[in-house]
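Our preliminary data section would be incomplete without showing what the modeling component actually yields. Below, a chain of 419 amino acids is followed by its predicted structure, encoded as C-alpha cells that our downstream tools consume directly.
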Amino acid sequence: MSLLLFEDQYVTDLYPITISRPAYTITCGSFRLMDWIEKLDRPVKTIIRRYLREIEEADFPAVNATTLTANSLSKPLILVNARLLPSAKNYHLLAEVIQRGEEIALWSGECLAIALLPNEASYPPATLASSELTTYFDRLQLNKLPRGEEEPVLLRYPHEVVAHHMEILGDSLVHRLEETGKYEEVDDGVFVAKGAELGPYCVTDSSQGPVILDENVTIGPYSLLSGPLYIGPNSRVLEHSAIKDAVSLGHTTKIGGEVEASIIEPFTNKQHHGFLGHSYLGSWINLGAGTCNSDLKNTYGTINMDYSGQKVATGMQFMGCIIGDYSKTAINTSIFTGKTIGACSMAYGFVTTNVPSFVNYARSFGQVTEIAPEVMVATQQRMFARRKVDQREADRQLMSAMYDHTRYERQLADEPLSL
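Predicted structure:
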C-alpha cells in the first residue's frame, strides 16, 4: 500500500504561502501534513508543481516525484490531497482508511481529499504534474468509488491556515506529548525536551493548553509563555518577550516582543520588540525592529482578504498578515489588517496594500521597484551562511523559478496607494 500526495488546481489559492513550498509542508497546529504522513510508515510519492520538484528532491530525498513509476509503488494506492489540514483528526481518519483497506473516496465539497483506489487502478505517468491531474482523475472514475460520510478539511486560502491553527493546536500538542514521550513536565502543564532552558523570572500559563519547549530551546528572563504553545528545536525567545495564545514556532527561530495566535516557520527572525498577531510567517523572514501588524479593524468588524483581486470574506474578527518565504521588513514597518506580503520582498513604512513578490515596497514614500532574482540569490547565500546552512543548487534554482511564476503579481505595483 502506497501514498500518493497530490497538489490540485487550488494550490495557488494558498499564495503567498505555497509560492516556494509544496502544500504538504505548510505548518498548522505545529505539524505539517508530511509529518503526519511519515508516521504512517508507507512509501510516499508526490505530484506537485514542476518548478518545485528540484527543491523537493533536495529536502525530501525519499520522496522523488521524477521517479514515480509502477515499480516504486505497491497497491492499493491511496490518494491524499496535499492541502489536507494537518490535524490529528485527519491523521486518524487517514490511518483508518489504511487499516480498513476498502475502496473509498472522501470529498471536501467537490474536491477529492482522500481515496483508496481499487487494485486495477492505473498508476499515474512518471512525469505527471499537478496541472495534469484532471485527465488522470477522469481515467480513475473517482465518482464511482463508494463515498465516505466523513468530510476532511482542506486548506483553501491563507487565512484558513491561521483560523484552523487556533482550533487544532491544543489537540495537536496533546498528541505530541502522548506519542513522543521525550518531554519532562517541569511545572504544571509545562513540558521541556532535552537541553531546553527557561530563564529566570519567566511566567508560564498553561490554563488554556500546554506549553511545550522542544530540544535546545532557550527562553530569556522575564518572559511570558502562555499555552497552547509550541516552540521548535534550537529556537530562542529573547528576554522580556510575551509568546501567548496559540503560537507555533518552527525550529531555529529567534523571537522577541509580543507574538499572539501565529505560526512562524523555521529559520525566521522576529527578535525585536513589536507586535505580531493572528499571522503566518514563512521561512527565512526577518522583521526589522519595531515592525508591527494590525489584526483588528477599528470597526471591530470581520475582515475581508484580497487574493489576486478577489475579495474573500474570512468571517474572522482577528486576522493579521501572511508573509511569504524570504521577505523582510525595515525598522518600524506597520502592516495593516489582513494584508499579504509575497515571497522575496522588502517592505518599508506603511504596508497598506498587498505586496507582490520580488519587490522593494515603499509605497508611503512613493516607490515600488522590482528585485532581480540574482539579488535574492546573493541575499539567500548570506542568510544561509549566518545559520551555517549550505546553499544548494536547488535553492538557487528556486529563486529564479519563483521570480518567473510571480511575474503577474508585480502589475499590482501600478495600483494607487490605498489608505
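Residues 2-144 form one domain. The mean pLDDT is 92. Preliminary results of this kind motivate Aim 1 of the renewal.
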